[in-house]
């Protein structure tokens, strides 16, 4: 998990016949994504381990290595298929089938991160002017006014 630069729960979309995959993140458990989708290119050459099978329209918990800012295709041991509320590792290392919520919570407890990506730009962080900026601005004006009155009084006592 520590070697993974990006951990996410995502829906898998096959984009073309060359095998390119686009991941639509539902939850980001470690790292960040520059856009709403994450593209994975099919690795060239022989892989040092068995590669994960990412089928179209499936969901998965993926532990991705990031090289030069680009996520790499995961190995089978780095992917848990999510189906019917269960998480099953593609290459069995003794984890067995466990509830999806338990797997996600165990990763979340280690990384301390749980981010749900914004659906669009309007869902992003914003500021509520009515309940934030205006009241704080009014308080600052009152404090500034009190300061001016105190300075006026002080200058009457000591005009130097």
Describe this structure in words.
- It is a single chain.
- The protein is an alpha+beta fold and about 160 residues long.
- The chain is about 25% helix and about 25% strand.
- The protein has helices at about 100-110, 130-155, and strands at about 5-15, 20-30, 40, 60-65, 65, 70, 80-85, 85-90, 100.
- A seven-stranded antiparallel β-sheet has the order 3-2-1-4-7-8-9.
- A hairpin with a 2-residue loop joins strand 5 and strand 6.
- The longest helix is centred in the last third of the chain and has 29 residues, at about 130-155.
- The mean pLDDT is about 85.
Oligomeric state as shown: single chain
Major sheet description: 7 strands, antiparallel
Q: What general form does the structure show?
A: elongated
Percent of sequence in beta strands: 25-35%
* Number of E strands: 9
Main structural class: alpha+beta
Task: Indicate the mean pLDDT.
Answer: 83
Give the helix tally: 2
Order of strands in the sheet with the most strands? 3-2-1-4-7-8-9
Rounded to the nearest angstrom, the radius of gyration is: 26 Å
Order of helices and strands: EEEEEEEEEHH
Percent range for helical residues?
Answer: 25-40%
Low-confidence stretches: none
Give the end-to-end Cα distance, rounded to a whole number of Å: 67 Å
List the topology elements.
Elements: E1 6-14, E2 21-30, E3 38-40, E4 59-64, E5 66-67, E6 70-71, E7 79-83, E8 86-89, E9 98-99, H1 100-111, H2 129-157
